[in-house]
Amino acid sequence: MYVAVKGGERAIDNAHRLLAHERRGDRAVPEVTLDQISEQLALGVDRVMAEGSLYDRELAALAIKQARGDMIEAIFLLRAFRATLPRFGATEPLDTGMMAVQRRVSSTFKDIPGGQILGPTFDYTHRLLDPQLAVGGEPEMPASASVSNEAMPRVTDILGRDGLIEPSPAPAPDAPVGDLTREPLGFPADRDLRLQNLARGDEGFLLALGYSTQRGYGRSHPFAGEIRFGEVELDFVAEDAGFAVPLGSIALTECQMVNQFKGSATEPPCFTRGYGLAFGQSERKTMAMALVDRALRARELGEEALAPAQDEEFVLSHSDNVQATGFVEHLKLPHYVDFQSELGLIRRLRQDFADAAERPDTLREAAE
Questions:
Q1: Domain encompassing residue 26
Q2: pLDDT digits (tens, 9 = 90+) for 320-339
Q3: Does the global pTM surpass 0.70?
Q4: Could you tell me if 75 and 173 lie in one domain?
């Protein structure tokens, strides 16, 4: 610990009290509740859960409140809490084909089995501020809730039946799955670890990288094969029971991109895949994730890896906003000793330069 920090403990305590005061805001304004955050700022809660890698709406809402709406700080708080939790095991693989769908769209086929379900979306809004929201009032109820409990085949499965897209990896339930929360990331990284990293990665960073692939920085010509949002049941094999028991359901968004085709002298051309999955309604995140996932498969598919989004080490090492925040914000902490050392060094160098300038012959010899 810095001596200066030790000496400033009273100032730090006062700073914490001031932060709590500022967090509360005007006492004449009712305090925001966790239910209000969870229900009315739902997409913010979804992002904090996804990048905090913990599915708990109440805790994510608490983190947002404590962080005064700073999403990255809230994500940091949720991850810190997650690190204290015991681990009882892993759930069975999810079957998103059995999702209770609230929203499902495809840009590749107009008519798909089960139909297009627009659901709750900003896609068709006018992006104009709504003054009615400032004065309150209850919105008009929809005619009916558009939730489908029928199993809907994925668009990529339809393409797969005709051999038009690369097959999904064969399921291997006994194969070990990496865990970034327990083991440090190494390179080269298998796809399971890459997808874990991207699922926890900063949405803005992934969005910029995904955008770059569409602007020519990487070989990519994507189509949104399917984006679906809804609830999926979780099953867990309890040791005592010896069979899978349902734990409940969680809301997920899944995106499958249909990308540029490939082929070889021995295999006919076919489309390739990019994949994204995240907690809650996280369409922008999963779309960007799918674009970057496909870009990171360049070497696997025999393509040149020249663009930033295709550089595995660059992408995976810089996508985590908690790590990035730590490196950037540590610059606010005292660096007095380091700076004084460099300040003394540059003063000596400047003095040496000034002394040499008074002796031109010496300066010329030094340059030669």
A1: 3-82
A2: 999 999 999 999 888 889 99
A3: yes
A4: no
